[in-house]
């Protein structure tokens, strides 16, 4: 007999809730390797533990439990309940990351390099089921087109029809594709493109999808050859760039801020990747549901969650802005003062390798999901390594950012240990105006002239510059500071990079002072900075917001409303920049015009300039 209800509340007709037992909180542990990826190692290149994977000894428990190969898991002094990896040989701390999350992000940003399997027979009982038409053309024969214009085949074994459903609309005005392409990469908003091309906005978006698919297919056909190209040396610059996504709900007018990481070769200008921390293929509701079912909200260690790379609602609620006391940057203060402020900033940040924070003042994307930027950075460098793994020597120049440093050193640890790769921080004060930059250039020339008069030599500017850098290196050798304090001030000021300072963050010895001075003199971010400048100037969606001094408001009128559009235009612009866009025609030393070349031609991926039509009508063949 059921018991009668007793009490003051009325009985509910809903079924009683079953008690949900939260899973036990796991002990602090190092995430296991996943498909050959283990990013949780010592970040100090001068340490004997650098690049050595830790192995957790499960028999030891408690705070600071030791690891069999010189590591220890210690509590975080600023984030309660979290842990960090400490190297017992050099004392460096590193934040722990999910290797599964890095692999998922690597698969996402590198998906364009894998050719889609294509349509196949859908009959489960057929011998051709799952056998793609592209790989086995003899198993099918052509069967015309569908009413929407898609190609069709018929299976020879069972007679079923196979349709090439690419997911895009039929290109009824294919002759407008080139016009849309050119307008898109030349500062035209979507409505302006629709007006000029006499298309509806939906048709413009459909053509942008088609253009992007063609660009990625073309890039895949060329960049798949990169690991086989004998490249002697690369000087790659890496930096990040932020983009604002407009709000779509009048009740919630918070903008979304996404970040992309890009790498370009300083010599050829070729951009190897421009990756946004946004995944459009996942649904927030489904990920949040899975997270709750798995009990991941009860984990105090984010790197142990199944979806560690994605921004969850819990992450946003717990995100904190920069704390008070962080030294603020001042316009025109100089590179060395900025270096010291960034070093002091480490004392205030909870995790210098993951300082991205989506607070309550910003909104997470309503479509798709935002990815923790550090996971995008780790995947970016690992994809870069797979593309340029055959290069004889690689030198990486990056902005002073611990997130970039962690991703670079984790991906290129093997090359750094083998002496085939080096990494440098480059700090530049870009707040100077044009007039101030020209004054700094004159100061450099005056410094060189004063050096000649003081020492009575007739050296050229380059030789004096190398000598002054070498003197600074000799002074560092006598003090033996830590790697964060080994900064060298470049005496040469340029219009693009005034007041520059360089730090060798993978100092393992092996270079003479003169050789190292030459390398430091070549340290630069101009490859990626030039690309960023072109993005801001030529893509209306990504231009900097307009500030209104009268109302003290910021206007994001041309920013997109769909975060996925950012990655689409980035992919299109990168292919055009690498294969179509040429440098300015200039005269050589003999007075003759130098032939124009694209970054792909300089790198060896193209024999000539690629036309836009070659990309739009690309079907897998060689076009140059």
Describe this structure as you would to a colleague.
This protein has helices spanning 99-109, 177-184, 190-197, 201-223, 284-294, 313-318, 335-345, 373-387, 402-411, 413-417, 434-455, 461-479, 513-522, 526-538, 564-580, 599-603, 612-616, and strands spanning 71-75, 83-87, 93-95, 140-145, 151-155, 161-163, 233-245, 256-265, 271-276, 278-279, 369-370, 393-399, 421-428, 487-489, 500-504, 546-548, 553-555. The protein is globular, with a radius of gyration of 28 Å. Helix 1 packs across helix 8 (373-387), helix 2 runs antiparallel to helix 3 (190-197) and helix 3 packs across helix 4 (201-223). The chain contains 17 helices and 17 strands. Among the domains are: 24-97, no CATH class; 112-216, no CATH class.
Helix run count: 17
Q: Decide which structural class fits the backbone.
A: alpha+beta
Low-confidence stretches: 1-27, 57-65
Q: Strands across the major sheet, in which order?
A: 9-8-7-12-13-15-14
**How big a fraction of the residues is strand?**
5-15%
Report the strand count. Answer: 17
Structural shape: globular
Please give the radius of gyration in angstroms.
28 Å
For the largest beta-sheet, the strand count, sense and barrel status come to: 7 strands, mixed
Bin the helical content. Answer: 25-40%
Distance between the termini: 85 Å
Write down the overall mean pLDDT.
85
């Amino acid at each position: 007999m059921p018991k009668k209800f007793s009490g003051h509340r009325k009985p509910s007709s809903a079924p009683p809730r079953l008690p949900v037992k939260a899973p036990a909180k796991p002990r602090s542990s190092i995430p296991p390797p996943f498909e050959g990826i283990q990013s949780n190692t010592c970040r100090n290149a001068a340490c004997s533990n650098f690049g050595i994977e830790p192995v957790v000894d499960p028999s030891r428990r408690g705070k600071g439990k030791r690891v069999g190969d010189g590591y220890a898991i210690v509590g975080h002094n600023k984030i309660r309940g979290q842990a960090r990896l400490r190297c017992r040989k050099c004392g460096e701390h590193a934040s722990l990351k999910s290797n599964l999350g890095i692999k998922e992000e690597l698969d996402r940003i590198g998906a364009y390099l894998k050719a889609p399997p294509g349509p196949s027979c859908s009959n489960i009982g057929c011998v051709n089921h799952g056998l793609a038409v592209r790989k086995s053309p003899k198993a099918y024969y052509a069967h015309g087109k569908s009413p929407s214009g898609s190609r069709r085949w018929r299976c020879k074994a069972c007679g079923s029809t196979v349709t090439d459903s690419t997911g895009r609309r039929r290109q009824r005005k294919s002759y407008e594709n080139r016009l849309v392409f050119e307008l898109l990469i030349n500062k035209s908003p979507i409505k302006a493109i629709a007006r000029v091309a006499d298309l509806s906005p939906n048709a413009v978006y459909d053509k942008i999808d088609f253009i992007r698919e063609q660009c990625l297919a073309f890039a895949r056909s060329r960049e798949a050859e990169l690991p086989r190209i004998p490249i002697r040396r690369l000087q790659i610059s890496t930096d990040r760039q932020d983009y604002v996504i407009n709000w779509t709900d009048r009740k919630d007018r918070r903008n979304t801020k996404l970040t992309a990481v890009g790498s370009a070769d300083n010599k050829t200008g070729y951009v190897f990747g421009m990756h946004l921390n946004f995944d459009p293929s996942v649904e927030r509701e489904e990920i949040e549901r899975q997270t709750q079912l798995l009990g991941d909200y009860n984990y105090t260690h984010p790197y142990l969650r199944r979806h560690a790379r994605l921004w969850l609602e819990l992450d946003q609620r717990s995100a904190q802005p920069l704390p008070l006391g962080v030294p603020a940057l001042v316009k025109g203060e100089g590179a060395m003062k900025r270096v010291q402020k960034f070093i002091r900033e480490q004392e205030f940040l909870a995790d210098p390798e993951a300082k991205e924070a989506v607070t309550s003042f910003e909104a997470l994307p309503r479509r798709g999901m935002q990815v923790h930027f550090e996971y995008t950075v780790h995947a970016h460098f690992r994809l870069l390594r797979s593309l340029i793994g055959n290069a004889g020597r690689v030198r990486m120049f990056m902005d002073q950012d611990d997130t970039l440093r962690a991703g670079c050193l984790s991906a290129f640890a093997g090359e750094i240990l083998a002496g085939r790769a080096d990494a440098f921080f480059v700090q530049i004060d870009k707040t100077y105006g044009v007039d101030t930059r020209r004054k700094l250039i004159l100061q450099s020339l005056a410094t060189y002239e004063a050096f000649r008069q003081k020492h009575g030599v007739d050296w050229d500017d380059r030789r004096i510059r190398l000598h002054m850098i070498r003197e600074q290196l000799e002074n560092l050798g006598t003090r033996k500071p830590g790697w964060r304090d080994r900064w060298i001030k470049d005496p040469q000021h340029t219009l693009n990079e005034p007041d520059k300072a360089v730090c060798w963050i993978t100092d393992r010895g092996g270079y003479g002072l003169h050789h190292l001075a030459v390398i430091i003199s070549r340290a630069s971010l101009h490859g990626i900075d030039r690309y960023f400048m072109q993005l801001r100037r030529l893509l209306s969606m990504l231009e900097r917001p307009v500030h209104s001094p009268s109302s003290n408001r910021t206007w994001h009128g041309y920013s997109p409303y769909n975060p996925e559009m950012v990655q689409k235009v980035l992919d299109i612009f990168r292919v055009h920049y690498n294969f179509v866009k040429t440098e300015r025609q200039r005269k050589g030393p003999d007075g003759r015009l130098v032939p124009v070349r694209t970054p792909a031609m300089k790198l060896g991926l193209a024999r000539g300039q690629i036309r836009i039509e070659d990309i739009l009508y690309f079907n897998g063949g060689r076009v140059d």
